[in-house]
Amino acid sequence: AGKATAGREVDWLEVEGQPEIQISVSCSFFRVMAANTKEALLREVSTVFCEFLEAATHTLLFIRNVYPPEIFERRRKFNVPVRQSRHKDLNDYISGAVADMKQWMDKGLIEKVVLAVEDCATKEQIERFVFEVDVDLTDQAQSPAKGQVQAHSQAELEDALKQVLLKINIADSVMPPVRTDATFSLYVHAPTTIPQSSDDWESLPAEEGGPRGGGGRAGPEQGAILPLKSVQAGALRMQVYAQSFGRQRG
Reading across the β-sheet that carries 182-189, which strands appear in turn? Predict the structure, then answer.
């Protein structure tokens, strides 16, 4: 039998007259593969989360009466009844904002997404719904063999998000009543500055900031916090809660 030569990627060896191939792969190759695996897994988690976020946004706008109920229609997401607007401009705004956010989440830059309900006249926040997210890939992508989200892992993730949607559907029953003189904003928290790709998102001060349009003042009080749901599924951990600032529209 022949002997592999140091420094060569592929060495041909003769074993009993038959050619065989010996491949030596450097550690850097596996590091690259592991990195690619984590990036793919992060994109998969991001895709499912953004589908959930879009459905949750429409449903919250409906149950909190931000827009007239007649502009919404019944749909299902993850086999849960949800609402979706039939207003093209509103749909384009939400889908465009979520698509922009996905570019940042694909890179692991998102820590928190907030849907803020604001008073139309003063632009002060009346209430907000907070989605704190953490994607931990430490134990999820340790080898190149795990390059795709396993079917059971995606099912587990969708089932967890299903539980959150179910909780959102009944949030209206435990929150103060509202009326139809409000608007809303979407904004994100990130550990670092992220590039703005559209007018749908605006950079915020690190402490909290105001959402799109420079308004969204929350006032001096922190607001009453109503925990809605905490879930963990695979690489995703998420805590969802509502905050009410005592200026309900009644």
Answer: 182-189, 112-119, 125-135, 236-244, 224-233
What is the tens place of the pLDDT at every residue in 43-61? 888 999 999 999 999 999 9
Closest residue by Cα to residue 249 from 120, 60, 71: 120
Distance, CA of 157 to CA of 237 (rounded, Å):
10
Between these two residues, 181 and 33, which has the higher pLDDT value?
181
Could you give the CA distance from residue 105 to residue 193 in angstroms, rounded to a whole number?
13
pLDDT in tens, 90-146: 999 999 999 999 998 998 889 999 999 998 888 889 999 999 999 887 765 444 444
User: Pairing mode, if any, of strands 224-233 and 182-189?
Assistant: unpaired
Give φ, ψ of 154 to 5 degrees: -65, -40
Cα gap 176→114, rounded to integer Å: 19
Do the Cβ atoms of 135 and 45 come closer than 8 Å?
A: yes
pLDDT at residue 23 above 50?
Answer: no
As a whole number of angstroms, the distance between CA 85 and CA 91 comes to: 6
